[in-house]
Amino acid sequence: MSKFKFSVGPWNVHTGADSYGPETRRPIDLETKFAKFKELGFDAVQFHDDDAVPDMNNMTVEQIKEYARGVRKLLDKYDLKAEFVAPRLWMDPHTKDGGFMSTREEDREYAMWRAYRSIDIAKELGTDLLVLWLAREGTLCAESKSPVWATKQLVEAINKMLAYDENIRVCIEPKPNEPIDRSICGTMGHVLAISAATIDPKRVGGNLESAHAILAGLDPAHEIGFALAFDKLFTVHLNDQNSIRYDQDKSFGVENIRAAFNQVKVLVENNYGSKGEYVGLDVKAMRTTSDEDSYEHLANSLAVFKALEDKVARYDYEYANRLIAELKFEQLEMYTMNLIMGLV
Ligand code: 3MF
Ligand code: MG
To answer: What is the reported pLDDT for 326?
Structure first.
């Protein structure tokens, strides 16, 4: 029995289209996904603003809230919570050069409108957490904007969100590159610096995605640990990634089981979840996956997480600490490997 609560986004069950080819699976409606999420053992759903309210750009504020109340009812029907809402600031023509740090004022205003509406939607869905995935916040052409100006724009945008609603917590999901060339906020260290510069640092934290840490050349467990050390880990996006290539969002643990074990270990050791935090997944099915298997990668990721949770529960800390005291790291490493391989 896991001691964690789990969450997932509707985008994690998708049609298989990528930059090089069209859909390979049929789309699935939101309610069907909710029912299946519940059946698989998830406790909460993560949303982009337009996952919850698809046509929001053409709706009034009141219409948006009303629609969101309907989604809340649907969540209730399946006994699911909303974990967070994230403004989708990378699809609209207004965000082609970014949102909060676009060089055009009207684009920045559009981005703030989406952020405010995301807060409205979050409130209706019963969550106080806003996630910012800063997809296009950076440069495509290094000379196109000043990194100093852009960084300050981000701080200012977050300050406006904090002022708009006194309860909202803002959580940045760092990523070093792709779909842009150079990002402004690429690691958990950047997130913490941004947080400290805002008007209410305790309401600004991070969402560590394993794949994004790997793309930055960093170890996900250490990024998680860095945020935990400052009480800044508001959520996680667990998945896996085969080194520095396109953002793969592989099932948790399939690429590097030892790195996955250490992510679970650092979460368990630091009582992650005790303040209501969820273990969020951000995993995608392979393009070859069939319609019938649309949820396999979610089931697999949960199974890997829970199996590793059991391994952590069996970790012999007394033995490990003895080895650590004697700097016997060869033995410590092999003990860990044997545990993961099921040999002890
Ligand atoms: C992209 C991501 C995104 C964000 C999500 C939340 C689709 O690299 O990781 O997942 O997590 O959009 O804003
Ligand atoms: Mg993510």
So the answer is: 98
Query: Is 336 among the domain residues?
Result: no
- Pair 300, 31: CB distance under 8 Å: no
Ligand 2 centre to CA of 167 (Å) is 23
**Residue 41 within a domain:** yes
Which CATH number covers residue 307?
Answer: 3.20.20.150
Q: Does the C-beta of 49 come closer than 6 Å to ligand 1?
A: no
- In this prediction, residue 123 carries a pLDDT of 98
Is the CB of 215 within 6 Å of ligand 1? no
Q: Answer yes or no: is 320 within a domain.
A: no
Residue 70 lies in a domain: yes
Domain count, the chain: 1
Output the pLDDT for position 1.
Answer: 87
- Which segments of the chain does DSSP mark as H helices, in order? 30-40, 49-52, 61-77, 105-125, 147-164, 188-197, 210-215, 220-229, 257-269, 296-313, 317-325, 329-341
The residue segments making up the domain with residue 280 are 6-313
Angle at which helix 317-325 crosses helix 329-341, to 10 degrees, equals 160
Q: Which ligand is nearest to the CA of 49?
A: 1
Ligand 1 lined by 11 (C-beta under 6 Å) = yes
What are the per-10-residue average pLDDT scores of the chain (344 residues)?
97 96 98 98 98 98 98 98 98 97 98 98 99 97 98 98 99 96 97 98 98 98 98 98 95 98 99 98 98 98 98 98 98 98 97
Structure tokens at 164: 């708009």
Ligand 1 atom, smallest distance to 11 CA: 7
Of the bound ligands, which one is closest to the alpha carbon of residue 209? 2
